[in-house]
Amino acid sequence: MKYSFFILIAFGFILSSCVKEDPVLGLTITPSATSVDAGQPIEFDIQGDADFLVFYSGLEGSRFEDYPNANTREVNMLADEPSLSFIYRNFNGTVNAVFVATSHGNWGTDTEEQIFEFTIDISDNNINISSATLKTPGLFGKVFEGVVSTEDHTVTVNIPEADATDSQLAALTTNIVLSSQLSTLRYNGEVFQNNSPVDFSSGSQTFNVEAVGGAVQEWSIVVQR
User: What's residue 41's pLDDT?
Assistant: First the structure.
């Protein structure tokens, strides 16, 4: 009798596995914004059920139309609250972000698919400097790292008198790294070429950072002795 009970249970499991179940798919996806500055995260709120969910950012190499050769990010749909946070960097323009959701029936023969498309406008107005160095003249010149203040838009470089003469300050090799690869650095109205000599004998010089999105910011590079 005992064995018959277990046989009935096993038989019940077999019968249940033979019942065909349709795919379960029903999602809503809501972005926190569709117009952002480059570097600002977009949070995608995901509600509902799907077996798989992948994201195409719309950037080069991750475009839906380039499937199956496009790079994607997979969303963990087993999480209690599935979500995706994405940041567009060094980009100015419009992208078509796409989510593709799929679910399969238990027999593996039936598949349902949902596609969500969002037009995202990105403006790269990053006018910050990330780092700057000044180097004294000569093959064995000394390199001095600047301290960047994004609040004051200044870079302060401490060059002790013992490490550089006043005449050497007149030709310091200057290297400035911008936070955005799309921004332009200008000095005296001209596009500045890194590793060019700049006269800091007056104690400071002014540079302008122009973002591709249109923003412009004046920066002061200050030498302290």
Answer: 97
